[in-house]
Amino acid sequence: MADRPPDLSSKNPDWWRQAVIYQVYPRSFADADGDGLGDLRGLTQRLPHLAALGVDALWLSPFYPSELADGGYDVIDPRGVDERLGTLDDFDALVGEAHRLGLKVVVDIVPNHTSHLHRWFQEALRAGPGSAARERYVFRPGRGPRGELPPTDWQSVFGGSAWHRVADGEWYLHLFAPEQPDLNWDNEEVRADFRTTLRFWSDRGVDGFRVDVAHGLAKDLTEPLRDLGALGTTGETALRHLPPGSHPYWDRDEVHEIYRDWRKIFDAYRPPRMAVAEAWVPGGRRALYARPDELGQAFNFEYLQAGWDAEELREIIAGELATARSAGASATWVLSNHDVVRHASRLMLPPGTDPEAWLLAHGSAPAVDPAAGLRRARAATLLMLALPGSAYLYQGEELGLPEVADLPTEVLQDPIWEQTGHTRKGRDGCRVPLPWTTTGPSYGFGPGAGWLPQPASFAGYAVQAQTGVEGSTLELYRTALRLRRKLLDGETLTWTPGAPAGVLDFTRSEVWRSVTNLGPEPVPLPPGEVLLSSAELPGGGVLPPDTTVWLA
């Protein structure tokens, strides 16, 4: 085994390459003031949980002033703190306590759009057509005899047209909710303001940034604007069929000039600030965002979207390692986040199941066995943590939380529900507040009820219910992260030849081995000392289905 753990100290500029980073959705983590929303003081009070878990950093989803038209991603002031979540002093206290506990802090930034309540957008509405204020956004006259039709056929990610008409007749672009007008990154004032934002948070001790919609900033705004037509109005089909870098608003080549400019800011700090791109693009294109002179790392969403299939996962793992290597970056792995069905539920859905339809059926068609889902989720987690690169965890997965698929429609907060005319339920089911204790109006989330209702089953998943309990999911995570830090050495793996069908079997640095049985039948357990198993081993030298084992 490796004698020395990886250097994750503040002096190491490459601490992020194999770090475990824990995503906090602050409104659902811990509520200190009792208003039902999680807040920064609540998070600070619960930081010992993250330190005891063994993660290296926390990534904080938006905590900025927002009307919550999109869960905080509609930012009114990118250099402020939402008063419901705290103050800048609370943020400074959070960073100070995190650093005292040995945790890095990564914050979400949202450069593609602002809130419609941002002072710039309000100025643009007052200033009118042709004004300099409107040049910070994407305003255009409509089509049709009276300008009554949108400028293009582009569609919002959340459903409906990506254009919204204002009182004077012009239309503005919003690739997400109408409350999220897109910025014009051809405008130098926009670029300068974001340089200020990056320095503002870096000066306050932030160690890195997660860049929201990193592939969406640059847009082809030359006239006439292009319709997508038969290639697909959402842009996803067009992204696959148009020449790389030529889509009118996704993944354009010009976006990389922006990130090369940002890298100069990141590298002016000691150690340099890290960054990771949320870029929903194919692997070869994703590598561009992860180059060392740009953001340095990019999320690998193919892994998150994969089914529970050994051949598919092996192909994705090999592809991601090659992609990261080509960029000079490290690989990234993630199973859950604030935008997708939690993997304790998702991995149990039969192949071909539409998650949106499953959510609309309140998780009943098909029904998911929570015990079977948790078993598979635990196996998936140990597999992920054995892979070279950075692992990103989502709050609550260390408790084994399933998706809350049966939220009543009257409590839904995600704008997707309304934007799609009630055809997509949205992402609230993975954002339900965390359970900390086995009793209380919100199971320890806060002194009162949370902003979304928790099911009674959450009591059994609570931190209090699992701490110190042998075999619990929380203790599995704690043990796995402690072992991982000791075992890491290098950023490569070697596939074991002759592995049975349905099995993923590889070694790391020739000193430890991870074996996952994704098939329906037990397989022979390879020789070696069992360091950790995602489920109890039955004996007899076999590895049961839906189980991962680490061997020395």
Protein described:
This protein is of the alpha/beta class. Helices cover 28% and strands 12% of the residues. It has 16 helices and 17 strands. The chain has helices at residues 40-53, 88-100, 119-127, 188-203, 236-241, 255-266, 283-289, 301-305, 310-327, 343-346, 355-360, 370-386, 415-419, 458-461, 463-466, 473-487, and strands at 20-24, 57-60, 104-109, 139-140, 163-165, 171-173, 208-211, 274-277, 332-334, 390-394, 494-495, 503-508, 512-517, 523-524, 530-533, 542-543, 547-551. The chain has a 7-stranded parallel sheet. A 5-stranded antiparallel sheet has the order 11-12-13-17-15. The protein has a 3-stranded antiparallel sheet with strand order 4-6-5, with no helix packed on it. Strand 11 and strand 12 (503-508) form a beta hairpin. The longest helix is centred in the middle third of the chain and has 18 residues, at 310-327. It starts with 19 loop residues before the first strand and ends with a strand. The model is unreliable at 1-6 (pLDDT under 50). It comes from Streptomyces lavenduligriseus. Residues 23-431 form the Glycosyl hydrolase family 13 catalytic domain.
